């Protein structure tokens, strides 16, 4: 492994750094974006039951806010329960924008890694071929060992860049899709809560 890294030249260092960073982001986001953690089921029903028992106070709202991203969104609506439906929705939407931004944390970095990794590999290819042509210019084509070293450097960096970019792109697309699905779920739950608390809809057990 170390021999391959050495053979690939100095451009292998940023490619390796990208691979470590991409792996760390993918694992962290997979852990953070668990559906049951982000949008726990039956959270709306719990809030409605508390409302019916008149147990929604500052402590309950604070606990709801700390429970999950969906809880934070719903807490913004519950905190404005005494106001109109429009005010509740505005508070929910404002908090929702912040929550979605947090859910998307590091995804742009992962997408950037997926984009630049093959470019770093291509740059390594260019550097390797420049070395090959320099050898041909100065020594002719007789020094097969040096020529092979330049070609090897070009191929190794290209392969390494693609090896980092492909799984990074897969994780980026997958995590982006998971965030989109979670956002839809949270929107539906928030609207359902507002309608139930304002008497426009019955709680479906």
Q: What's the short story on this structure?
A:
The chain is mainly α. The chain has nine helices and no strands. 29% of the residues are buried.
Number of contiguous helices? 9
- As a whole number of angstroms, the C-alpha radius of gyration is 27 Å
Quantity of strands, as a count: 0
Q: How do the SSEs run, as a string of H and E?
A: HHHHHHHHH
Helix content: over 70%
Strand content: under 5%
Descriptive account of the structure:
The protein is mainly alpha-helical. The chain has one domain (2-197). The chain is built from 9 helices and no strands. The chain has helices at 2-8, 12-32, 35-38, 43-52, 58-67, 69-79, 85-103, 107-139, 144-197. The longest helix is centred in the last third of the chain and has 54 residues, at 144-197. The protein is rod-shaped and about 90 Å long. The N and C termini lie far apart (57 Å).
Task: Identify the notable features of this structure and list them briefly.
about 200 residues, mainly alpha, 9 helices
Question: How is the secondary structure organized here?
Answer:
Layout: H1 2-8, H2 12-32, H3 35-38, H4 43-52, H5 58-67, H6 69-79, H7 85-103, H8 107-139, H9 144-197
């Amino acid at each position: 492994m170390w021999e391959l890294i050495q053979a690939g030249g100095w451009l292998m260092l940023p490619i390796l750094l990208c691979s470590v960073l991409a792996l760390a982001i993918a694992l962290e986001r997979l852990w953070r974006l668990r559906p049951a953690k982000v949008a726990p089921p039956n959270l709306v029903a719990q809030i409605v039951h508390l409302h019916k028992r008149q147990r929604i106070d500052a402590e309950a709202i604070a606990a709801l806010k700390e429970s999950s991203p969906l809880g934070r969104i719903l807490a913004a609506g519950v905190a404005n329960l005494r106001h109109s439906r429009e005010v509740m929705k505005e508070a929910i939407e404002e908090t929702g924008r912040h929550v979605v931004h947090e859910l998307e944390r590091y995804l742009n970095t992962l997408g950037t890694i997926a984009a630049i990794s093959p470019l770093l590999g291509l740059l390594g290819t260019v550097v390797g071929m420049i070395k090959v042509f320099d050898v041909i210019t100065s020594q002719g084509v007789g020094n097969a060992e040096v020529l092979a070293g330049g070609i090897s450097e070009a191929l190794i960096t290209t392969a390494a860049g693609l090896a980092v970019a492909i799984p990074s792109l897969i994780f980026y697309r997958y995590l982006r899709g998971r965030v989109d699905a979670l956002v839809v779920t949270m929107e539906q739950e928030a609207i359902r809560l507002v309608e139930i608390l304002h008497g426009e809809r019955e709680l479906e057990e």
